[in-house]
Known about the structure:
By secondary structure, the chain is of the alpha+beta class. It has helices at residues 49-66, 84-95; strands at 4-6, 21-24, 27-33, 74-81, 106-111, 121-128.
Amino acid sequence: MPPEFHLFASGPRPVAPFSHAVETDGWVILTGQMPTDPNAPDAPLPEGVIAQTARVMNNLAPILSELDLELSHVVQCRCFLTEFERDYADFNESYQSYFPAERRPARTTVGVTALAVGALVEIDCIARRP
Length: 130
């Protein structure tokens, strides 16, 4: 089967030319989400990495929902932080609340020099259909 490219009107407004998700052979790859407000995409970003992480996770969830998936279907996340040393512990505090301790996805977290829209955090993920 050829890949399916998904862009949802209910999803956060893309900050670049991409699909919200691409699906192939039961694998669903979600584009990295920013901490923008889907209902007010031009509004200021939340203050601090904890609030931005929560917003990013809450932006990933409706994309998964559009595909009849949940965070429990996520098998891998890539996380990007602009202030790695300063924000890593606080990021982990917020991030871990979205997954039960016995069911956390594989994860890579990378420090980067900058992210779109001046964000402190971006997260993309891969989910697998049951």
